[in-house]
Amino acid sequence: MLDLAILGLLQETPMHGYELRKELATKLGTIRAAISYGTLYPTLKRLQTAGWITESESDPSMIPPMTSKRGRVVYKITAEGKERFADLLAQAGPETYDDAGFGVHFAFFSRTDQATRLRILEGRRRRIEERREGLRDVLSRAGERLDAYTLELQRHGLDACEREVRWLEELITNERSGRAPATPGSFDIPADPARDASPELPRPHQDRP
Amino acid sequence: MLDLAILGLLQETPMHGYELRKELATKLGTIRAAISYGTLYPTLKRLQTAGWITESESDPSMIPPMTSKRGRVVYKITAEGKERFADLLAQAGPETYDDAGFGVHFAFFSRTDQATRLRILEGRRRRIEERREGLRDVLSRAGERLDAYTLELQRHGLDACEREVRWLEELITNERSGRAPATPGSFDIPADPARDASPELPRPHQDRP
DNA sequence: CCCCGATGTATCGGCCCGATACATCGCTAC
DNA sequence: GTAGCGATGTATCGGGCCGATACATCGGGG
């Protein structure tokens, strides 16, 4: 999962570890607080061993001069890495539909073809619907076995599930009618990007046609 | 975190591993799909070594007779385990306020005193508010740097944050006015436990007084 | 009679996290 | 000036937790 995210970011531009962590945090802020260095560096080493990325010591754009001793290590993606990224983007494991997996895949939807986008959105919807049904069962059948706080927790979780299903429904509808909110590559922004709300951005929250 | 959940469930009644996993799944269904056996059994071993629980081979209530060979192992909590449970319930680490930690603590709120409940609810609210501010910053400042799908993901996450903050606000208000939705021990249920909705349950979703 | 799904216990490799250590740079404060 | 401090930066270690896997029993349906 993390492989996909790192490969995706390095495909945009080479980076060193610290930078990568920050970009990861902003891109995946909703689904993962901030990747730990205890995860990042071993993962980078693993990707390097596999041949997906290469390490180039202290690049020319070294803005803070840093009298060396230990230059920053800049990672860049290889051709095999780009292939790997494409494979990971399109693959359909069960982990593609859990919280983390779906989030990472969704974050790179602008580089995914529409058929794959639809498959992932529908798979995620099915997953959430299952979770929702489980919660409904607990709330209706096991109502007298659980205390009020636990029930309230379940109810709140059920709310979140229903909300996410609706969100996914709208995204799927949009996707099917070709109104995808992104074009591959750079995106046409109408000059003022959402100060308080952005009704001109093709979000899935418009009325049904 | 898992220690707290296991100790809490074993405090209600002794259980064997398989049963424990199922109870864990229904009680914590919203925050953790289902605990893996690769987690559960080592954890039980660790709790046993620490002296919080004891293992009693194949109890008298062995309903499916099972011609032995390997009887089911029933775990029960010790006096030290109950102390440990109380400590874990009241303690205030940073992990108390993340998704998993808060969920487990909340699930055992019926055994927590009101002061601790308030502290945890407010800590959680602060945590979510910070996450919300981070997302708002990304959405307003980095609007043109991210593609539309990533932005949509952030927007959805922001929605979830705002929703959870409101939920917490209502719980805190309820808690402060003494209208806690649970009494310690068993709970008085009005005969028909929520077939479709349960307006008579003291949920935090009633109108303000 | 045989397979299948539920019940049940247990281990292993591997991902990921928090804590920790170490080093440099630019800024402010004394 | 120099001492601290926060941001930048790389890296390791112990341990929690997961998915996959193995093994075993039991009840029921084909």
Structural write-up:
2 copies of one chain form a homodimer. Chain A is mostly helical. Among the domains of chain A are: 2-58 and 73-99, Orthogonal Bundle (Arc Repressor Mutant, subunit A); 115-176. Chain A has 7 helices and 3 strands, in the order αβααββαααα. A 3-stranded antiparallel β-sheet of chain A has the order 1-3-2. In chain A, α1 crosses α4 and α6 (114-141) packs antiparallel against α7. Residues 182-209 of chain A have low confidence and may be disordered. Chains A and B meet through α5, α6 and α7 of A and α5, α6 and α7 of B. The first copy, chain A, binds a DNA duplex (30 and 30 nucleotides) through residues 1-2, 16-19, 35-39, 41-43, 64-67, 69-70, 72-73, 95. Chains A, B: Residues 6-86 form the Transcription regulator PadR N-terminal domain.
Strand and helix layout:
The structure is a homodimer of 209-residue chains.
Chain A: H1 2-12, E1 15-16, H2 17-27, H3 37-50, E2 53-57, E3 73-77, H4 79-90, H5 99-107, H6 114-141, H7 148-176
Antiparallel strand pairs in A: 1-3, 2-3
Helix pairs in contact in A: 1-4, 6-7
Chain A binds a DNA duplex (30 and 30 nucleotides) through residues 1-2, 16-19, 35-39, 41-43, 64-67, 69-70, 72-73, 95.
Pfam families (chains A, B): PadR (PF03551)
Organism (chains A, B): Paractinoplanes toevensis
Biased composition (Basic and acidic residues) (chains A, B): 193-209
Keywords:
homodimer, 209 residues, mainly alpha, Arc Repressor Mutant, subunit A, three-stranded antiparallel beta sheet, 7 helices, 55% helix, disordered C terminus, DNA-binding
